């Protein structure tokens, strides 16, 4: 039996999915911020420099690869490098689901009134062409992202005091303060 589907411009029909996706956006923004913090720690450069450089590394997978390479080239212990790699690998795998949410087409199955994602890499009729999506699936993803993001933050905090050629303690100020209570940086005039 062929499914009747129609495109979606919004998720007004399912506020639970809309709410879960809003959390997805916030969580992945936090992941990106913490990846920048890791970059800043590994390179020992300032936050402003990190922000500028990290923005030019396009693609999430590329950022992960750069961070792994940087970690491998530091004086961190093998165990510390292994922990960094493990967190980056898990976060990278979770990014695949996030990419599905962002890059696949959202549809409403008119017959079941369920929200589905269309993966255009597959042909109609293929089992992977349409995937049912519900708030529970998205929340499970979000919980995994939250766990691994927290694990990354905890690892960064555990590296406090590790010397990589230059001490740059302000990274830990970023980790110690909630986002809306971070100390304001002092502007420098030439």
What does this structure look like?
With 190 residues, this protein is of the alpha+beta class. The protein has one domain (5-181). 57% of the residues lie in helices and 9% in strands. It has six helices and four strands, in the order E-H-H-H-H-E-E-E-H-H. It has helices at residues 15-43, 47-55, 60-72, 78-103, 135-158, 170-176; strands spanning 5-7, 105-109, 114-118, 130-133. Strands 1-2-3-4 form a four-stranded antiparallel β-sheet. The longest helix has 29 residues, at 15-43. The radius of gyration is 20 Å and the shape is elongated. Mean pLDDT is 83; it is low at 167-172 and 177-190.
Summary of the model, kept short:
By secondary structure, this protein is α+β, with helices and mostly antiparallel strands. The protein contains 6 helices and 4 strands.
Radius of gyration: 20 Å
Structural class: alpha+beta
Domain tally = 1
| Residue fraction in strands | 5-15%
Strand order of the largest sheet: 1-2-3-4
Number of beta strands: 4
For the largest beta-sheet, the strand count, sense and barrel status come to: 4 strands, antiparallel
**End-to-end CA span:** 70 Å
Order of helices and strands: EHHHHEEEHH
Helical fraction:
55-70%
Stretches with pLDDT under 50, minimum 5 residues: 167-172, 177-190
Tally of DSSP helical segments: 6
The overall pLDDT average reads 83
| CA-based shape | elongated
